[in-house]
Amino acid sequence: MGKKFKFLPTLFAIITIAFIAVGCSSESSGGSGGSSSVDVGIVLPTKDEPRWVQDEERFKAALDDSDYTTEILFSQGSSDKEKQNVETLISKGIDVLIIAPHDGAAAGAAVEAAKDEGITVIAYDRLITDTDAVDYYVTFDSIAVGEAQGQYLIDNAEGTGIPLYLYAGASSDNNAFLFFEGAWNVLQPKIADGTFVIANSSEAEALKEKAELSRDELGKILGQVTTNWDPNEAKNKAQTHLTAASADLKGDISILAPNDGTARSIADVFGKDSAITSYTITGQDAEIASIQYIIDGKQSMTVFKDVRTLVTDAMGMAVEVLDGNTPETTGSYDNGAVEVPAKQTDVIVVDQENVKAELVDSGYYEASEFTGLE
Ligand code: BGC
After folding, report:
1. 108 and 238 both lie in a single domain
2. CATH of the domain at 316
3. Three-state DSSP class for residue 344
4. Nearest CA to ligand 1 atom 5
5. Does 51 contact ligand 1 (Cβ within 6 A)?
6. Mean pLDDT in the chain?
7. Whether the predicted model's global pTM rises above the 0.85 cut
8. How many Å lie between the centroid of ligand 1 and the Cα of residue 150?
């Protein structure tokens, strides 16, 4: 599901965006239609992860000088709260809903309620699955994220028989499947040829000769190595795995960590084990704390997903819809029920070599947010 991004023969036309309005972040913004009228509702999964606070900040930064009003609400990791948020926004008269679901399948009910009111639904970063109530999807290339993570481990591996510890995101998030699938695409041949030895997943071990895994097979591996996107769960799992690991699964090792929040806590656990002589560990999101970890040599890489682009694409689509036009898309994702027209953005690998150029010199972050940056 959602595996193939099919490029349609459309050109990447530049949408000129008259950007949207007004104060947001869990507060209503006063629109022209009355004190609580809102044109575009934005629902994000949780404030507890820096990734989504980044999105909130970038939305706010993009929301100046427009005729349209917006409101951003957070679901705090609860599908019930998410549904309430959508209902609140429906009651405020939104015409467009931009939503990154907490749980891609459970969010179906919320977006169906919006659809029933004639609202255009844009899935943001995470696909909403098994419903026809999603009109558009704006996303990063999530398969490429996983491939970049896997390739980084390969490029930094020396010798053979290197213990490989696998971790994944939450099974309720379609992206977790895409990330793992991407990583598997590149890692599997290197597992099959003995470069890597899987250290912590009997399910992955049993499937190591298979280049392409079904959703069910991926689900089995995820069931074993999921972090649920929770740094604490990641830490506990890493501890359990290290306690169980024999000496030949220590030494110089590689770790596939799905994102920055989980990477930092897994790195902390492995970094404290004296039998681990070195580790290479992946991440994603370019969170400030992980950029510091990369500068300090505690996390090897991150996949930078420029949230400004996703925000621009989502708001651009919303404005097109509000203006009565059909938004530009560049492909589609199968969500299990329909092909959802999509716009996809590339990602950038960041490590010690290019961290300053990509994230500081580019103006994405301030140098003053870090120590030891050269
Ligand atoms: C996002 C990642 C994020 C993860 C945990 C995924 O759907 O694409 O950027 O780290 O969720 O919130």
Report:
1. no
2. 3.40.50.2300
3. strand
4. 229
5. yes
6. 91
7. yes
8. 17
